[in-house]
Amino acid sequence: VVIDGDDRQTSQLLNAITDQRLRIIDLAIPVGAAEARNLGVHEAQGEWVAFLDDDDEWFPHKLSRQMVAARQSTALWPSISSRLLVRRSQGDSISPLRSYSSKKPVSDYLFCRSSFQDGPHALQTSTLLMRREFMLSVPFRINLKRHQDWDWVLRAERVPGAAIIVLEEPLAIYRAPDPSPNARESLSCAHDWQFSMDWGSDV
After folding, report:
1. How many CB atoms sit inside 10 A of residue 161's CB?
2. CB atoms within 10 A of CB 123
């Protein structure tokens, strides 16, 4: 677990867990989500890595389902994602509505929609699983304050031998930001269109 900056409550809770498999990387100075994930990959000891943001949740069978798909893939570098259960105060929903087809570029899936009712598409970070070696060669870009998952998937797809595989079954829970005016603004909802325009022309 990478703790990105001073968070005494989280540190205390984690240090109370006696499971020897748990290793805690407690960063005194925040480095941002992208670099925190990269550090976690460098410290990992297994062949495969997967990510879980602190405000998301995995279903208990997530990793086992994804490992089956990874073992069945003929690609040299399979990256396994899944659909999400999006949890809002109004109720739960499944996202994305439209399934991903590996026969088309992942950019078409993320950004080309047939109608407004098609809904948003994402291969969200907490759904991703891939070989550690692949992640070391294609790390998250640390200069991005948003669009980090989109950026990674688009770059990963270009690597020879890579394949993006999205399972139909929702395997992670994403807690959507509270729409109330007093809620903390999340990166995904930040109103910074200029950054998005600049990122789109650079990726």
Report:
1. 10
2. 25
